[in-house]
Amino acid sequence: MVLKNKKQALLFLLPALLFISVFLIVPLFRTVYYGFTSWHNFSPNKTFIGLENYKKLLNDRVLWISIKNTGILIVGVLIFQIGVSMLLAICVDSIKHGMRFFRTVYFFPIVISATAIGLMFSLIYKYDYGLLNYFVTIFGGEREVWLTKERAIFMVLIPVCWQYVGFYFVVFLTGISKIPDDICESAALDGIRAWQKAFYITIPLLKDILVSNLVLVVSGCFRVFDMVYIITGGGPMNSSELLSSYMYRKAFMDYNVGYASSIAIVMIILGLALTGVMRTLANKIQSE
Amino acid sequence: MKTCKKILALALSLMLMATAIAGCASPTGANPPAAPADGTSVPAPQAPADAGPKKETLRVITYFAGSDQWVPVWKEVIAEYQTQNPHITISDESVPTAGTNDVFRPKMNADIAANTPTDLALYFNGSDAKPLLDSGMYVTWESYLAADPAWNSQFVDGALPAGECEGQLISLPYIGFFEGLTYNAKIFRDYSLDPPDSWENILKAVEVLAKTDIIPISTSLLNPTVSIETMVLAEVGPDAQKKIADPSWAPALDRFKVLYEMNAFPKDAATLADADSRPLFVDGRAAMSFNGSWVLNSLRDNPDMRIIAVNPPPGSSGTKGAIVAGFGSGWYMSKQAAQRSEESLKFVKYMCSPEILSRFIQVGGSAAMKIELPPDTEPVLLSATEMVSAASSMSNPIDAQMPREAFNKLAKDLIYVCEGEKTSIELLEEVKELIASAS
Hints:
Chain A is mainly α. Chain A contains 13 helices and two strands; from the N terminus they run αββαααααααααααα. Chain A has a two-stranded antiparallel ribbon with strand order 1-2.
């Protein structure tokens, strides 16, 4: 222990504790309370209405669309962010030259803000002057509306996955570099093939990192907001609405703060439940 | 040495906390005296006779920000004011307000919730004024106007009531607006079509133009605010328009379905932002568009642009020449600012002078004060003047008469009606439920 004096340690922890209390803990408890109120237009008057907001939520079609879309997002990022980033890391680790180049290229989207990426992809998808339709017309095709009710959420999924693949790629690559060389060398002497090395050595030894990444990815899905807000605005016909974007719409566009607070609570409960499931799974995997 | 480290650690922690707390201080520097709980007009303190003008910063929020047409004039006039009054600094906190990217309303509401209202705000009237009135943080203007009859007489007849909320003049109306159907006369000439001054002519134009590369009506179904407002008024007339979400509105919504099925709107209308639909009309790729006075500035250079009232369709109960118009925004002054000094009032009077206001009106809108416009007015502005002067009635937009959540529901879910996934009556019932839950 660096600080033997507990008072000193507490003193240093106090500012952070104060910050977290003021900006996180207190608002969280207040949000729980607001979820039980009818509060419109940020008015000074709130009326306690018990579980009314939650009863309304059960019949809210958009909420269920948002939950379904958040589920699609989680499955999508599990497959494409975790899967692709692991694949890329294994591939890049196996090459002799250019590892630094690929690491930089794949990591690059992380340094761009989500808003900028959202704007970029919204321009790509535009019907009138979008890049996708530009290529379609170059090859003699007809321009297409890309953000339709059926595929809007998947079109949002693309930039979300693309942005964070690089992050998990670097984490996996770092994990691979920690695998002892002697294991790989002895396997090579036994004539192991590349795919066998990946499945029987690399992936099992990356178990800890995989578990951490899974937890990060799932909890990260609840934070996705800007991409949807910028690319589709939750439309068309609420088909790409996420819990986060729906909560924002209710609070800051419809000014129904009480109802938005109840959506926030649903988000927290779902997030905690999913993280709990992931942790249980992680513990199970690690104990095997 | 150990004691020295402890003191250093304590000092650093205190500094960190002090820095954090400093951010919560009043932005104007000195703490103004608390506003009284009752009474709405607040007398300003008198400065000592021998003291020079005291330096002061006025926090002002408007929607003159981003791509708003009045931004250059606004920047000019506040710069001039600061030059003429070197002791005054205008802290311009203006933020844009445009469709789905409206950050103005959230900021105003957040300022009220945090008890940090700006000294002056050029903000919306109608239902948006209610939270400001309820907060008790803003003055009402009756006594200020009574104290200055010359200033009072400069307001045009009928302008001031637009700033009233529950019988109190909380906002001083400033720039007015009007809404109508803009059309490109050249496209109508090119395709031998009659101007869209009747529902039949609109349908005929849509039928002909939908077969061409020209988009018949450029509108966003993501946020069709102006389209809904003008169509509802045309359908039901000024009296029934005040009966919020009345079933009589349903045919107006159904007409959108008719137009949608005739391919009248851009193909990506369901995800097209209002700001993206506008250039389609401005650039001549669309023949018609439901627009407001705030767009006319971008149409001035094209001599073929016109704006007309949407006339009642056959069989409807609408009134010919009825338009959505009024003074949708006005000046609000916080009680804190009024108590602190007379500078905020002085600035409002400067802004609400015919000379300054006419500079804004030359860009767009209509004036709440008696002003004179230059003679070389462009055709689109002339058609606007003609529309407004021939108007049989002027109605407030429906979005100012109903809670925001309810109007957003109406606007956002119009696409469900167009797609046939919801009937117009069902949508109106949902809107009514939201109105009931908000009241």
